Amino acid sequence: MAALDRVKVLVLGDSGVGKSSLVHLLCHNQVLGNPSWTVGCSVDVRIHDYKEGTPEEKTYYIELWDVGGSVGSATSVKSTRAVFYNLLNGIILVHDLTNKKSSQNLYRWSLEALNRDVAPTGVLVTNGDYDREQFGDNQIPLLVIGTKLDQIPETKRNEVLTRTAFLAEDFNAEEINLDCTNPRYLAAGSSNAVKLSRFFDKVIEKRYYLRDGNQVCHFS
């Protein structure tokens, strides 16, 4: 069997938001029993059928790079992480729906990965928000995933999800909210599964099929 082509997707977000549990669920459709802190980076692989059910269907490896979530400002920490940001094809931004700070930090994470050669100074504008125009020309597909949905009381879910909905708009990305301890949130045919498949298709298209908006030949 010929080796499958692959794409690299970073999984970024603060420590404790559930990145490792999410990656395990995405790759194995199973709940991670004993999640632990990620030191450096861990990589797992998901098999994805591009344009499933069409004549263009083709199987790819999706490499999910789970990057350790320390948000320390030390230059050495950022420099160490920068090596993981090379040759990326897509980014999954993960935040904890019960932790407002983890949502706000997604701007910092995305800017760090997309502008890895640029110092983060000057990113903040005067009112304390990030300059969202910095994401306007981004060509890397993004997906925003909120975790720990089960920990939000039903009476407060609309309020929380309304507050976090702006993230997807700012990043020009689709949004998935779930509980990583319940595989049904990514069940085949569900809206979340469709969004996830659409994101991976977009990542693959950017890597293998599109160049400057035009289709290019893809050699197997």
From TrEMBL:
SUPFAM superfamilies: P-loop containing nucleoside triphosphate hydrolases (SSF52540)
Keyword set includes GTP-binding: yes
Domain of life: Eukaryota
Gene3D superfamilies: P-loop containing nucleotide triphosphate hydrolases
Assigned keywords, A-Z: GTP-binding, Nucleotide-binding
A GO molecular function held by the record: GTP binding
Short name of one Pfam family: Roc
PROSITE patterns, per the entry: RAB (PS51419), SIGMA54_INTERACT_1 (PS00675)
Keyword Oxidoreductase: no
CDD domains: RabL3 (cd04102)
Family that this chain belongs to: Belongs to the small GTPase superfamily. Rab family.
Its job: Required for KRAS signaling regulation and modulation of cell proliferation. Regulator of KRAS prenylation, and probably prenylation of other small GTPases. Required for lymphocyte development and function. Not required for myeloid cell development.
Protein name: Rab-like protein 3
Organism: Chloropsis cyanopogon
Gene assigned in the entry: Rabl3
